UniProtKB/TrEMBL annotation:
This is NADH-ubiquinone oxidoreductase. Keywords: Membrane, Transmembrane, Transmembrane helix. The keyword RNA-binding does not apply. The chain crosses the membrane at residues 70-88, 100-118, 150-172, 184-206, 218-242, 254-275. It comes from the Bacteria. It comes from Streptomyces sp. R33.
Length: 278
């Protein structure tokens, strides 16, 4: 569909909303997150002012519902395990136990990140000239960096993989201080930054441009809570740097509590995401 047939809105080069007039009359409104998460298109018939939701076909709805459930549960469980790992690190007696709990949580984060990417890849698309959504052929991978939903979820998935390097390295024994900072702390920082970038893109998608507050929008709350979790993860990572001179962390309490509270944010976001479905 060419933009000359309607209006488009979004952030920078990304389109997050399209409005056009279908061949049969009326007005159709497509929003990227609404279509990707709920499989919905808003359509008003000729002469009507209030649009009504038009859902995608059963194939797309079934896909979106399954992928959303997998992603939501993965982030809920992964966040809970990260929070438990941080609690063990703060109050427990074995660093090895906390490291294995973190590693298990990281696997759930990997799963949630890839499920989110699959949802963006396989979301239905607006049909040119019609007031409906078209189902796409299933794909395990597509390269679509010009779409903000794909870019946001792709960066999120890469972030979970980078965290995996951090979590695997934390299981190793006998690392020098330089190796600890290079193999554990550096990937942790990179992963946190990628999570922040992904969250910012998600905010731009939800707000169709400049980030703002949309307190009545469930999608906004999910994105905002996850972004808060990313900020807390970054604070935790900064505090977890090992000083070469002393061999101690900048602040172990902040590192543990930042991870715990940030992980609870992701877990809460996962619970809310269970309700953001077709």
């Amino acid at each position: 569909m060419s933009h000359s047939e309607g209006r488009s809105g979004g952030a920078g080069p990304f389109t997050t909303r399209l409005t056009w007039r279908p061949v049969k009359g009326g007005t159709a409104v497509w929003e990227s997150r609404v279509a990707r998460k709920r499989g919905l298109l808003l359509v008003s018939a000729a002469g009507e002012h209030e649009p009504s939701p038009r859902i995608a076909d059963g194939v797309s709805v079934s896909r979106l519902r399954r992928l959303n459930t997998v992603a939501a549960l993965a982030f809920t469980v992964g966040g809970a395990l990260f929070a438990f790992g941080a609690w063990v690190a703060q109050f427990g007696s074995s660093d090895a136990t906390g490291a294995w709990i973190y590693f298990a949580g990281g696997l759930f984060f990997n799963t949630g990140g890839y499920a989110s990417l699959l949802q963006a890849i396989n979301a239905p698309r607006p049909e040119a000239g019609a007031g409906s959504l078209a189902t796409r052929a299933w794909a395990w991978w597509r390269y679509e960096p010009y779409r903000i939903d794909w870019l946001s979820t792709f960066v999120l998935f890469i972030g979970t993989l980078v965290f995996g390097i951090n979590l695997l390295s934390s299981l190793l024994q006998g690392l020098s201080l330089q190796q600890v900072n290079r193999l554990i702390w550096a990937p942790d920082m990179v992963g946190c930054i990628l999570f922040l970038v992904s969250g910012h893109l998600a905010l731009l998608e939800v707000c169709h441009g400049r980030p703002g507050v949309r307190s009545r929008d469930l999608s906004w709350w999910i994105v905002a809570i996850n972004q808060l979790g990313s900020v807390l993860f970054l604070i935790s990572a900064l505090a977890a740097f090992t000083r070469p001179a002393t061999g101690s962390l900048v602040n172990e309490d902040i590192a543990n509590w930042g991870t715990l509270t940030g992980a609870l944010c992701f877990s809460a976001g996962g619970v809310l995401q269970l309700f953001e479905r077709p």
